[in-house]
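Form 12-C: Joint structure prediction
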Amino acid sequence: MLDLAIIGGGPAGLTAGLYATRGGLKNVVMYEMGLPGGQITQSSEIENYPGFEKVLTGMELMEPWPKQCMRFGLKHELAEVKNVSKMDENFQVTLANGDKVLAKNIIVCTGSTPKRAGIKGEDEFYGKGVSNCATCDGFFYKDKEVSVLGGGDTALEEALYLANICKKVYLIHRRDSFRASPHTVKRVMENDKIELVLNSTVKEIYGDESGVNGSIVVDKDGNERDIKAPGFFIFVGMNVNNGVLKQEDGSFLCKVNEWGEVIVDLKMRTDVEGLFAAGDIRIEAPKQVVCAAGDGAVAALSVIERENH
Amino acid sequence: MLDLAIIGGGPAGLTAGLYATRGGLKNVVMYEMGLPGGQITQSSEIENYPGFEKVLTGMELMEPWPKQCMRFGLKHELAEVKNVSKMDENFQVTLANGDKVLAKNIIVCTGSTPKRAGIKGEDEFYGKGVSNCATCDGFFYKDKEVSVLGGGDTALEEALYLANICKKVYLIHRRDSFRASPHTVKRVMENDKIELVLNSTVKEIYGDESGVNGSIVVDKDGNERDIKAPGFFIFVGMNVNNGVLKQEDGSFLCKVNEWGEVIVDLKMRTDVEGLFAAGDIRIEAPKQVVCAAGDGAVAALSVIERENH
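Section 2 - Result
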């Protein structure tokens, strides 16, 4: 029986493991099927994780974390978790190989993954001009031009965020109207830094070794336009990685919102006793390393509090 | 008119400033009457701020923060804030010198300060064996003995936390019963690692250059006892630094709980539009650097969202 199973080994999971083991929990396993570190390791530049004067790559930032977080007894199991379910007072973790493990507490830190748009050049230039996060990467395009792809609330809010920083924002959307809330649409319309590029799809994002140089956009009549903006932000939806919480009957083990994000309180507690969530999988997650790490610490301290209670 | 005034320059305030200015807010001032960094700079060892393999001092940890956080335009004003009040749609910040500044948004990051017990040796050995935080410093006494002073919920919960890590916990309390919740008292009573030292006060905490060696405890009959534990944890209450939120009529500018901690949601919003709180001043704060920093980022992103709305 584990005291705690942590599902996912990004900043939230690693920090949860650090705080749990350093706080005296004995049997703590972090399940992560890849190298610990999370999706931030794919990022080429990070300058907003507090504590570092110079800009780091994601790999540089995360390199010390596993050693630091695992030196108090956290075990990393290189395994994929298929499912978490209730088993009397405890939880049963089912691995992809069929193994089943019991745990008294669970912290789910499986994050969320931006949906890909499927555009030529998207993968090639990911982290080198193509981004899914204005908060993270917008500043690198200060006083430069950027493109934003998408038509929902997130795309428009991120376009407004970018308009505060960048010289110009091309908002590219395949339809002639937006799915976003009317108020947000109005703010976008009023913003003279945002140019709407409607009824249009992106044929290609192009660039060279230094990164993105621009994109070729095609309107509904087939006319091509070359938008020479070195930043290309894609907001076509998120996959919340909540699969492990799906039960046989299709329901979720705990309450989630309409997008599948796990509902937590300030202590990272879900509505199920002993089940916690931390990082990008939870509601209102700002999707920043420092916030995910803070969440992990909070969740682990809540587990310890529960065990002492 | 400031876009944002940040009150307090610890991890929460600095990170809020980083995210606010990097996100494009133009007029952002952080009021901090001392050197930025916060109370963590007094700590002699930190090993749970994620990202560093080796143990750091508080000064080492915080040294890069001001430069990193201020390079996007955050201004530090070396001034004491006396009061924040509403002024029509905005806020008025009154400084100790009488100056008044208007701001559209406020993030309060003034933290909380542990009450001192007033014991001989307490100040001398603060950070060298005397601590106010089991989560921070408990692990340094793994398999060693520690003393805990206090009789409230926090003292007992911290004693339970320490009992998971340490060989033995002496729980010193001046009365013969505890003010804590009955369930917590029961858990403490049942824990065979915790020895109750009741009806007792501490005459002195003693040690040498290497830190605390023990303390002299006096019972109600005047008998002295030498408790040779190298860790001494003091939990005799917290001062929540909410003075700037106090209004002329004695009320607070926003909702606070029974201890004076500011009530926030997951976005660090108070019940007053445009007023946010981050770090140790808020409810349920785990009082950890990484959590305070995460709060600061969240609060700043909430300000930007509000300004874009």
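Section 3 - Comments
The domain at 2-114+238-307 of chain A is CATH 3.50.50.60 (FAD/NAD(P)-binding domain). Chain A has a mean pLDDT of 97.
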